[in-house]
Prior knowledge:
Blueprint (H helix, E strand, L loop, with lengths): L5 E4 L5 H12 L3 E6 L3 H12 L6 E5 L5 H15 L4 E4 L14 H29 L2 E5 L12 H21 L4 E7 L10 H9 L9 H13 L8 E4 L8
Parallel strand pairs: 1-2, 1-4, 2-3, 4-5, 5-6, 6-7
Helix pairs in contact: 1-7, 3-4, 4-5
Amino acid sequence: MSENKVALITGGSQRIGAATARTLHAAGMNIVLHYLSSRGAAQKLQEELHAQRENSVVLVQADLLSEKALSALVKEAHNAWGRLDVLINNASTFYRTPVAGASPTQWDDLFGTNAKAPFFLSQAAAPLLKKSEGCIINMIDIHADRPLKEHTLYCMAKASLAMMTKSLARELGPEVRVNGVAPGAIMWPKNIDEVTKQRIVSKTFLKRKGEAEDIAKTILFLVQDATYITGQIIPVDGGRSLSA
């Protein structure tokens, strides 16, 4: 049962993060919803969930590239209900970085949000998660294994997150389980044309894109039911990772 458990979701106000918040909330969890700049979306989601269960969602604004903000974020999550059971490292930056023009600033940004922040949030949350025998779920990407052209830095950062998932599972066990989810074609990035969409979908074996709820349901399974699974990364990609 997930009733009264507390989940901290980074980047939780929109897209997959919001779907995950709704799914875990429906399972009885209280939610600490982190956002960077999407305050309006975060407040709207909080109101929606409070209409279902009062005082069950707390909003926390933080810049994950700030090292001081990471430990403060975990502290605020703990202060909300006196416990922490689940950390979901969902927040991410994603954009093209062709090798010829990639910059140190882009490196710091992509590695900061996709690898550094998840690690130091996990470090800060580990004592609380050990106490509750909780878990960490990292949002990875099928491109951690299969590089996406002109996205080298992003793919490298997600590959780091994949290895972090396995390493933390080994180090934080047996009290804390650590797993990852690797989405495929779930929600289209901005400025993607229809031809590219169809090409991507054609490489899946289900011949369709997935939905944010597909990821959220997988996360709920890993949190609630997968008590003997740790150090694993589950692709949710319609079989796309099987294609050549």
